[in-house]
Amino acid sequence: MTAIPSPSQFDVTPVTIEEEMRRSYLDYAMSVIVSRALPDVRDGLKPVHRRILFAMKEGGYDYNKPFRKSARIVGDVMGKYHPHGDSAIYDAMVRMAQSFSMRLPLIDGQGNFGSMDGDKAAAMRYTEARMARSAHFLIEDIDKDTVDFGPNYDDSSVEPLVLPARYPNLLVNGAGGIAVGMATNIPPHNLGEVIDACCAMIDNPDITPEEVMELVPGPDFPTGGTILGRSGIRAAQLTGRGSVVMRGRCHVEEVRKDREAIIVTEVPYQVNKARMLEQIAELVRDKKIEGVSDLRDESDRDGVRVVIEIKRDAIADVVLAQLYKFTPLQTSFGVNSLALNGGRPQMMTLREIIAAFLRFREEVITRRTIFELGKARDRAHVLVGLSIAVANIDDMIKLIREASDPAVAREQLMARKWPALDVEPLIRLIDEPGRGIVDGTYSLSEVQAKAILDLRLHRLTGLERDKIGDELREIGEQIKEFLEILSSRPKLLEVMRNELVDMRNQFATPRRTTIEDSEFEADIEDLIAREDMVVTVTNTGYIKRVPLSTYRAQKRGGKGRSGMSMKDEDFLSQVFVTSTHTPVLFFSSTGIAYKLKVYRLPLGTPQARGKAMVNILPLGEGETISTVMPMPEDESTWGDLHVAFATSKGDVRRNLLSDFVDIRANGKIAMKLNDGEQLIAVQPCSDSDDILLATRLGKAIRFQVGDVRVFKGRDSTGVRGIRLDDADQVISMSVLRHVEFDMETRDAYLRNDLTGPEAERMSESEQMILTVTENGYGKRTSAYEYRITGRGGQGIANIDLTEKNGPVVASFPVGHDDEIMLVSDGGTLIRMPVDDIRIAGRKTQGVIVLRTAENERVVSTARLCDLNGSNEESEEEFDEGDDTAATPPGGDDE
């Protein structure tokens, strides 16, 4: 057999997969962080932006030169410095040219470079570009050894590691990027304000963050708009993190007679205007924003103009508040000031960013000054040689003429000592250290000797001799200034300050984004007029609100008015009169609580059916609303009120109503339910009340509310209210008034043997329990017949069930003047006064209420409330909370 070679024969180093993956992923992460996604705090640029500007500088695409094809620029960048996709380079270049993305655009584009509507730029073969004038101040002096260079991706050339930016571009234009495990999002600021802060820090290095914030009050977005409040700005500037709430700029105009419109002239930064209009249209169509009649975009080259016409009866401030709440017309900018500082990612405050820039700028000016000093000295050195030559022109010409060749002439020029008394002061100032005049003579260097040999004859004229002297004196002054800058830090800082002020004078513009001191947005409720509303709920889950003023009061015995238009099997199950500011609680069959203010309910006419609650509330599949409860408007009083829950499995519980003050839009768990269990009723209650539970198989139990403890949490299943047989379930819960009496008094009252004040008291406190079965039988029974027992028992008989009357459908208290509505699964609907139903004992079968056909059964029974009110006075209107009997669909004629 052939021997298997060992790894050492192939120079293989064993590596575990875990170690290799860890190292490779860290290398990738650091590459993304340092070389792609995060900007440098010094010039505010990512590598791709830096390479674009450097390539344009090398290609000569200056602001005062003709435009060049974008494809040519992208090709230069990709071929020399950025070995990535051309689309990545072009997209970065496009953003640098967009005035709505950059506060100070760095590229001057010609052609289609995109829009605020999300339109993409034209292909790079169609567009043209050149550097913007402001970009020259980012790359200026790069050829003066101001920054370090490194090899490009293939070592064929070098590229700058940072640009010698003259202004803090990171703050002026902001930045955004997602790295590995970190991200940055820095908003743009006003150039003038940022430079003022830089100057203030130069003047006072110990300036406090608060003093810096006074000079830079907040971001200044290129699209304008408004910033709400200062807390988010303060957090962002002091810690590097914060959330800035932005709003578009709007005003109200009268577009035609009796018709107003909201005009949007500025949209929040980075908001897609076209998508914003689509969202507004969707919300108007879904009735989440009410009062809008028309929507159009009239924006043109002169600016943004979005027209939102409102209906005649709508309030502009209310519609605007809805737009702010539900659309991107108000949005937030999450500030995350992460940048590379010294090659390492760092979360930086406003003051730290400015301080880092000033340190960098000080280094740039120092390196530039050293470079210019060297250049000036080199030129001055040559000029000194020329000055010596002019001063000794006859001797030099003679020496050169006698030399056999240029090399001999150069050596003889360097070997001879030349008189230099006339230029001695300048030579001592500007010549190289270690050289100078010795005993009134000067020795020429090789560079000077070569310059003399290359001297043209026209430089020997008197005028040219004077020019050499003038240039020498001018360079002397420059060298003197350079030395002063390098030897004096205050002088260097003065140069930096002057350059910043010059930038401000050239490019600063007024602030576009205003800052409002209001920390909180105006609540829509504050803009809603307080008005009495009639809220109607139907048996199949439709709801609406109608202004109370719509219903005209009538004399007793009137014909009423046309009621709601409903399906045949539907009917009005609940009506209450309340204010637009009243909160309404909705409890669903799955134990979830929802809350809406009345003004959030759909507005309708008396004839309209309303809107299905499944389209108003985020109900799940199979989830229905069991209870609709209007609550006190002052939510601070809810802590004194209790609410009782009952489930189909016989469990009950009691909670403080204050547990349901804070409910989010997606609802809040009201009660935990077991599998197959449903929440069938929720009722407000107090310790002085009784609870009556009725079951499908004819059982009932009555116990005091105090027997159910107040639960602190909402995620428990409650306690047992009634013990059920396997086939039984609770179909209703009623809250009854608690009346104290002894059994003898009760029995005497029920036999009509009780007289006097005691009989009067019992009569006033008496409640009747109506019970209806599936086969259309029903009866009324005095609540006195339901004795009070302990919670959790099997209960007592509520009705005598037989095959003739069938299981119980409903059992609830009724008054003598009430009416009820019964609906069968065959579509039969009947309405009748409860007085037509005989009063009978608990253990009776009842009488026929609805004569059902074979295989037909009653599926729903409800007590009605009167919408018209049978008032005796023609001018009388509804009282708030009126609970009187309801007009059926179509008025009294039905």
Question: Would you kindly provide a written description of the structure presented here, covering whatever features stand out?
Answer:
The protein is of the alpha+beta class. It has four domains: about 170 residues, Topoisomerase II, domain 5; about 80 residues, Gyrase A, domain 2, CATH 3.30.1360; about 130 residues, Topoisomerase, domain 3 (Orthogonal Bundle), CATH 1.10.268; about 375 residues, DNA gyrase/topoisomerase IV, subunit A, C-terminal (Neuraminidase, 6 Propeller), CATH 2.120.10.90. It is built from 21 helices and 42 strands. Strands 14-9-8-19 form a four-stranded mixed sheet. A hairpin with a 4-residue loop joins strand 39 and strand 40. One of its GO terms (biological process) is DNA topological change. It is an enzyme of class 5 (isomerase).
Secondary structure elements and their pairing?
Elements (H helix, E strand, L loop, with lengths): L16 H21 L9 H13 L8 E2 H11 L5 H12 L9 E4 L17 E4 L1 H7 L9 E3 L6 E3 L8 H5 L1 E4 L4 E4 L4 H13 L5 H7 L10 E3 L2 H9 L1 E7 L1 E8 L2 E8 L6 H13 L6 E6 L8 E5 L5 H11 L3 E7 L1 E4 L2 E4 L2 H42 L1 H10 L3 H10 L1 E3 L4 H7 L10 E3 L2 H8 L8 H26 L1 H19 L6 E3 L7 H4 L4 E7 L3 E6 L24 E8 L3 E6 L3 E6 L13 E2 L12 E6 L11 E6 L3 E6 L11 E2 L9 E7 L3 E7 L3 E6 L14 E2 L9 E8 L5 H8 L5 H10 L2 E6 L3 E6 L13 E2 L10 E7 L4 E6 L4 E5 L13 E2 L9 E7 L30
Parallel strand pairs: 8-19
Antiparallel strand pairs: 1-3, 2-3, 4-5, 6-7, 8-9, 9-14, 10-11, 11-13, 12-13, 15-16, 17-18, 20-21, 20-22, 21-25, 23-24, 23-26, 24-29, 27-28, 27-30, 28-33, 31-32, 31-34, 32-37, 35-36, 35-38, 36-41, 39-40, 39-42
Helix pairs in contact: 2-3, 3-4, 7-18, 12-16, 12-17, 12-18, 13-14, 14-16, 17-18
